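Protein modeling request. Please complete all fields; requests missing the sequence field cannot be processed.
Requester role: graduate student
Desired output: 3D structure, token encoding
Chains: 1
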Amino acid sequence: MTDGDPRETPESTSAEAAEDDAAAEPEAAAPAASDASETQSEPADGDTAATATAATANADTDTAAIDTAATDSPPRPVRNGLKRALAALEWVVVVACSAAFALSFGFNYGVDNQVVYNLGAVHLLNRDLYKHDWFVAHTTSYHPVFEYFSALLLWLNRDGWAFAITTMLLITVMGVLMYCLCRVLTRRLAFAAFLLLLALSFVVRLRSVGVSYIVDYILQPSTLGSVGFVAAMVAFIGKRWTLSGVMLAIGGLFHANYLVLGGLVFGLAQLTLGREKLVSRGIKQLLLPTIALLIFVPTIVKTAGGGDVKAARDILFHLRSPHHFSPSGYEQNFIPFIGWQLLGIGAGLGTILRGKDTPGRRLASLLAAMMLVIWTGTVGATYFKSSFAAQLFVQRIAPHLDLLLQAMWAVAAVELVVAPRRIKHYSMVALGLVAAGLGTLLMFAGNHRIEKMPDLLLLSVAAVAISQAFFWAGQLKFVAAKVSSETAKRWATHAAHALIVLLAFRAVWDSAREGYAQLKQRSTLIKGLNPNEVALYAWLREHTDKDAVILTPPRVEGMRLHSQRAIIVDWKAVPIVPSEILEWRRRLNDVSGRTVRGFRDLGGYDSMDQRRLDQLNRKYHLAYVVTFRGRERRLKARVVYRNAQFTVLKL
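Delivered output (651 residues):
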């Protein structure tokens, strides 16, 4: 692959690509030369948008023929106007497809992690609430910026629609960032690669090992941190160091884990780019994230001490959140993770990861840094039993690594369809990695009944195979003698490009239609929560004092948020400071009547008798008790509310 700027590409690579262009796309030279001249006129500073755009535009001279007009093309003003109209239409379709992807997550509020992360926002808007709630009033807040942001959203709409709409907007932005990523890697084929990548994202849902994800069906701190991290990756590959640092800092303000991991990843990536302007690049990249990290230093220090740290970490890693912090418990999910690394790197070796100062070189540095951080942390947490490595939760950036690898595969597949001659750039090692990656992913999908991912992978493989078959058939002498027209070859390139766009768009369309059909099912704001829980929460808000302390089943996670009353403890709301984690465990043991070693032990709450209730009342000064219906018979308190699922007793 050659680049328009001779300063950025080895001469041998340029010569090889030029030879390919002369044989396969004879009219590519003019656009390439034009792009090169435009690049030469731009400033040399890597942080300018024009330089990044020019560098990425020149990375695809092997496929330049798809933009070359016919000999009898219309006048230049008409051509330029048509190009601008098509470019605008492309952006419209990108945004529309990204919005359809966002819609597939549904409109949700007040579930899952939001029942914890939104408590601070409710408290900010009404200081009279939660005065006697231990978790809200007496534990360390670890997402303070998100509390103020979510308070603003609640102020705008108390029903949660502002959260749901913000989630839709962020996921739409995520889709546009995926297009920008493809555009950085291949300017002319970005739209087709984006559609293929988005179709794949509909299936994998941007999730990876350790219950990690880039976006989810609810708005939470990690959503903002994750989107900021992706924006930082795209800017880094585009050689815009300052913008990358700004995006990382903004995202990290909402979730400090991205500041720590991002500092490691982007710092290592800058080092691998060489010594030239390293200090300048490092300052632009890491200054703002470092300043943002200083805000969280007191909290980070508190998490490292206070109480029995070893016991607290054992509770967090093995009792409460092994799905995050104990990789041995989800080791089978590393199979597709490894599969994407094999497939993406193999695909990239033949096309993208070439040249010196190119987007591919910067992508390679970023990939190497992310893989080093993730695998070092994983091995440290499992083999060496490092609590520091486990708490760092390096798997959080695993889906971001997957996204880069999936984008590399999409770009390579589209390029091999449109410019089949590029198969010459693939060594046996690269092809072997591609085959191993495909085999790993197909095996995992078959064993776990993941239907659509194999279809998309095989569809792209089939498109590449057909394009290769036509190309190599055209190399036969008796065929080449009959098909010698350069116009015919150019139109064959156009047809291949159009075909891969249509196939990828059809896959996106089908997934979008399925997502829309399931919109109500996936939207808590449309279908509603459990009606018995909703009725219970409403009764507690309307018939109890704001200062009341209520004993509730620890398995019912939405009690604090939706009833807006203080409770003793629940399973969902776990603090992060060691002394607070130990207190959380003690409270769970108290209300469950046994030593809690896992979620099942919370069932001990249902065997509550009068003696244990009296002990809890003396210790926590209770006003009401909530039980599952039928479990109140051994208690002497007066029943003040009952529905099909719950009973409330007044003490």
